[in-house]
Structures are given as structure tokens and as C-alpha cells.
Amino acid sequence: MNTSYKGRVLGFILGFIFTNLLGAILFMILGYLFFDRPANLKKQQNDEAVRAFTSNANYNESLVKVTFALMGYVARGAGRVNESHIEKSSQIMNVMGLNAQMRKTAIDAFNSGKSENFNLNDTISEIKSLIGNNFSFVNFILEIQVQLALSDGVLEDEEYRRLMDIAVKLGASRDSMEQYIRSRYNEMHFEQQFRDFYRSRYERENTGSGYDYSRSDSSYDNSSSSYSGSGFGSSKLDSAYKILGVESSASDDEIKKAHKRLMLKYHPDRLASQGLTPEMIKLYTEKAKDIQAAFDLIKKERGF
């Protein structure tokens, strides 16, 4: 493990400059207590999580179990598990590249989670024993739960309550879960509009059916064979800005910085260094595609 000495070194230097040798030693101790020790503890926990999820297949299986058990629990909050929930669960299995045995494990866990006698507290305790304080894993689990809950385009009150309950018990704030929900809504809106656009473009090029392309959600400037300025519509553009986490009034430089920050956040190498498994990284790669598409749309509209 790479041990941090920054707090002690900086504390000693500052103490020596502003006081004396005794003060330098005191500042060095404070640097250890308030910087080095917490940093080293966090690094140790992350290293343990990495080893757990890369060196022992049983841990990967355990992660799949708890993740899909929570998915079943959240889906049941809608009143009944519907086709959208099942389709999203299957999609997540596919993206994660689960083999036949692991898919069965995931399905069994999902069914357990949706049952009346599912014990949420026991599952939360199991998650904490697996990942410790590695919040990268917590983020991953929470984002999947949000994807599942919104897969049918509706967030029922009980689904919302269960999402919040899971977030708080895993140590996340309600505000952060609200942000996950808003972000997923924006991504879904953005994805649907692009699907509508490509579907309408296909119909125009292949059927000549006289479809009205003046509508803001699907128009296309055929003369230039590219997206038109009005073709995206304000709703598409608004969603793109929200995905990047910036206002429409943001400068070009602010937009570029936001895009770079998010792409670095979801870069496979960075995710791997945080201890995420290959299955997790595959799912985040899908999220990075939406971020890139949103940036490309804004860039096209602004012409930079």
C-alpha cells in the first residue's frame, strides 16, 4: 500500500517556519491525525475492496446477489413487477456479461428481493461487509436501482420511498439520491428523443410517407444531411445541458470542462483504480456514451 506522508511533511514544514522545532513536531502530529491517517485508511479500504472483487469469484457472485436482490425489492415498490422491470434487469445482465450460472444467481436474488419476507436490513449489512466504506461501489448499486425504478417511465411513491431508504442506509444522502433520479430522467429523455429522431429519419428516407418533420422532437435538415439548429428542439438541448450538469447560459469553456470532468470520472482506467469490477465498468461505459452524445449535440448547436 502506498502510504501518504503529505500531512506530516507539510505540517512539519509549516510548524518549523512559523514556530520552532517543537512546534514543527506538533504540527507534524496534527498532519498525521487529520490528513495522513484518514487518507491511508481510505486507501486501505479501497485496496481491500479491489482484492475482494478481483481475486475471489465468490465476491463477484455476492455483489451480483445483493445488487439484484435490491432491484427486486425496488421493483416490488411499484405494486407489481412489470415487463419494463424484467427487461431492464435482463439488459443489465447482458451489459454485465453474466454467464448462465450468474444469470440464474441474479434471477434468484431478484425473486428473493421482491418477496414479502425480504429483509432489507440484512442485505444492507451484507453489502457493508463486502465493500466497507468504498463509496464507488455504493454509487454503482444506487444508480442501478434508479435505472430499474425508472425503467417504465414512472416512479411510484413506494418505489421512491424504497430508493431513499436504501440510499440512507448505505450512507448516501437523500440529496445525492435525488440527483441520481434527476440525472436518470434526463438521460432517458435524451435517449428517447434520439431514438425518435433516428426512427423518423429512417421513415423519411425509406417510406416517403409525408411525415411532418417540422415537429421539434424529430425534425431533420435534409438539405445539409446533418442535425439542424431547430431540429434538436429546446427539450433535447435542455436535457443535454442537464446531463453535463451545466446551465444553458454556461460558456463554451465551462461546457468543455464539465464534459472532460465527467468523461474522466467514468473512464475505465479510473473506475478500475477505484476497485470497480469489469461488470460495473461496462455499465458505466454506457453512461459515458450518453455524456458524449450530449456534449456532441451541444457542440453542434453552438458550433465550437
UniProtKB/TrEMBL annotation:
Domain J spans what residues?
239-303
* Record region (Disordered): 206-232
Which Pfam families does UniProt cross-reference here?
Answer: DnaJ, TerB
List UniProt keywords, sorted A-Z: Chaperone, Membrane, Transmembrane, Transmembrane helix
Which superkingdom is the protein from? Bacteria
Regions crossing the membrane = 12-35
Protein name, per record: DnaJ like chaperone protein
Give the source species.
Answer: Succinivibrio dextrinosolvens DSM 3072
